[in-house]
Structures are given as C-alpha cells and as structure tokens.
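Handout, page 2. Input:
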Amino acid sequence: MSISRRHFLLFSGTTFITVGTSSLPLGAKQNSHTWAKTLNSSNASLGQMHCSTFETLKDRTFQVFTEEGEQLHLQLEQVDEHGQSKQLEQFSLIFRGYQGQSLSQGTYQIQHRQLGRFSLFLVPTGEPETSMYYQAAFTRLLV
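Output:
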C-alpha cells in the first residue's frame, strides 16, 4: 500500500498534536502505566489550536503535570509565527519556568483554564540565572 507524503504528514502530525490528557484530579500521582494510558485520551485538541489561539494567552500561566505527578507553572512568554501558507502553518511557543524548577525534554500534560488539558512536547532552551525557558514547536498541514 502506497501513502503520499502529504497524507503521512497530515496523519502523523494530527496524531502527535492531539496526544491526550489525564482525568486524574490535580495533584494526584500516577505511575508510568497510567501515564501511557492517559496519552490516548483528550479533552482539548491541539489540532484545533493555531498561532492566534496562543497569541491571546501571552503572559498567562499554564499548569504542567509531570509523569511523577508534580505540578509546575510555566508562563507563556512568546508566540512566534514562522510562516504560513495555504497549506502549512509553523509557529513556536516559549514558556518561562521559575528558578528551582526544571523539566527535561519530553511530553507533558499541560492545562490552561481557557484551553483545557492537552499534551505538549517541551524542549529546554536555556538556563538564565532566574528562569528556565522551554520551547514547543508546531508544523501543521492545513486542510
């Protein structure tokens, strides 16, 4: 069976972007088995969120839940559009963490009261003296 690059990217991008959320109460601990199960459900779809969605939430705080059940807070500092055409949207988000808290590169459960709960892949991008910064990059085919 042959699949076009466009369909592969559309399917894999949508699958990656819409990876799930947890139904655990805030602060509840979960083991890695529970974590893996929560990645298959969702109450907020990143597939329906665009650069403009996040622009309105600049300087707002997002909750981040680790696999170990910790809850951290990150502030959305920057929303950068890297280009958009009729077929493709590219943008990135820069979050600021607080001194003393750090996350390694990976997928985390993110929650915001306006967007709901969703998973996001975060990459540490720097370690200034007072804050840690994280980037989430988006490349999405528009259909």
